[in-house]
Each structure stands twice: as structure tokens, then as C-alpha cells.
Amino acid sequence: MSKYLIINADDFGYCPEQNEAIKELLSKKLISSVSVLAVAPAFDDAARWLKENKISAGVHLTINSDSTEKPWKSITGNTHLGKSGALYHSSKDITLHATHKSVRAELEAQYDKMIEAGIETDHADNHCGTLYGINMRRFYNDAYGFCGAHNLPYRFPKTPGFIGRQLGKAPPSVILKLHKMLVDKAAGYGVRLIDDLISNPWNMERIGNYETLRRWYLDSLDSCADGVTEMFLHPAIPLCDEKTEWTKRVFEYELLKSGDLLQKAEDNGMTVISWKQI
Predict the structure, then answer these.
(1) Which helix (H) or strand (E) element contains residue 10?
(2) pTM of the entire structure?
(3) C-alpha span between 193 and 90 (Å, rounded)
């Protein structure tokens, strides 16, 4: 086999600062794919730009909102997903109130919004992991059913290396069993998965500076095995001069702009591809 790498920018449509960074990176071919948040406030701008430039994108499925102050509105307005049409922020609320019917309807509505905006949709992935079963709900069945119905590949790694990188240690056996079950489930639904997944899990307190984050991403490419690996980041231009959690997005933007990831992939014999090529 050969080594393939997808470099994906998540959260297109999140806000103007995220959109501007992603537009630049796509224009300069410094990333190979992108995922769009259909419920986010800057969606229309992202959708218009993708349509004008004839670029396909993934649907970044979400059943939660990132903020309690300005929550995203669900497209269906189903009260099982949040009060007054606003998506729940708390994972606990999602666990207690969301239903499979409401989740599947929202996934379909977000996909339909992408199609109606003229975006060719090439894959699906999930915002904050709410469809992976980590909230003790089997919403992965709804995600797999959705992907199978629309013949979309899905972001979930067939190998468990991603879990160890996220935890910073070897996963316990119960997690490995759950991972295998999820991979087998995907096969049962006829959904194509990638082989591995890379994304830095640290907060800014642990990252500290740009070079630490840069080194982590470059080193992570040294351990890639044969098959398709996706690296996803959340690039954005600065919101202010202060160092906040948003600074991690700015660092990822700077890293992608540098071209260092593309060079490292080339040095390691990896072919950079898009989700559309899957």
C-alpha cells in the first residue's frame, strides 16, 4: 500500500475570522479539504465562496452549539435538541434529551442546506465528537445511516492510534472494544472510513508557544502507516492581541501557511489528497 494524507480545515462558516483563513489556505492549495458548519453564523459566506470557486466540502455535522451566550440554531428547530430551537451546549443535555429521530432529522437538514446552497458534498464528519458514542448515546447509528444513505465517507479511524494520541496514553481495553465495534458498525452500513486521524488535543496552557504545536504536528507525520490519514485543524486569523484558546487556531493557521506540513508529507513519501478523491 501507499501513504495518503488529507489536510482538512474544520469549521468553515464558524465566523468571519475562520472563513478568511480557510479561503486563503484553499486558494493557495495549502490544505486539501474543508468541512462546513451549516448552522454557524458565517455559513452563507462560506457557501457562496465554495460555489463560486467550484470547491467541494464536507458537512461538519453538529448536534451541539459551541456557546451558551450565542447558541447556534438547529435547522429543524426540534425541541429535543435544545430549547427555542437553540442547540444544547451541554453534553449532559444532549444525553438526556436528544432522540434518534431528532438527531437524524437534523443531520439530513444540515446536508440539505449544503446541497441547496450549491455545495458539492464530498464527506461527513462530526463537530465535538457528539456522534461517536462518547455521550453514552448510540448516535453513531444515525451518523452511519445518514452517510450510507448519501454514499458519503465518514471521519472515523479504522485504527485506534488516534485514541491514544488524544488520551496521551494507551487506551484501556474497554475503549478498544468500543472502537472495534464502531468500525464494524460502519462496515455494516457500507460506510467508508479513513485509516487514521491526527489532531492536536492540547489546550493553550499546555501548548504554550507556536513551536511546540508545530513540532507536535510535524512529528505526528513520522508515525503514519500505509493507508489514508486525515489531519484536521481549525485555522483562523487573530481575534485580538491577547493569548487565549483562540490563539491555537491562529497557530494552526500560521503552520498551514508555512507549507511545513506539505513538505513533511513529501519527505515522508505521503501523497496529499482530498476527501473528494476518497
Answers:
(1) strand 3-12
(2) 0.96
(3) 28
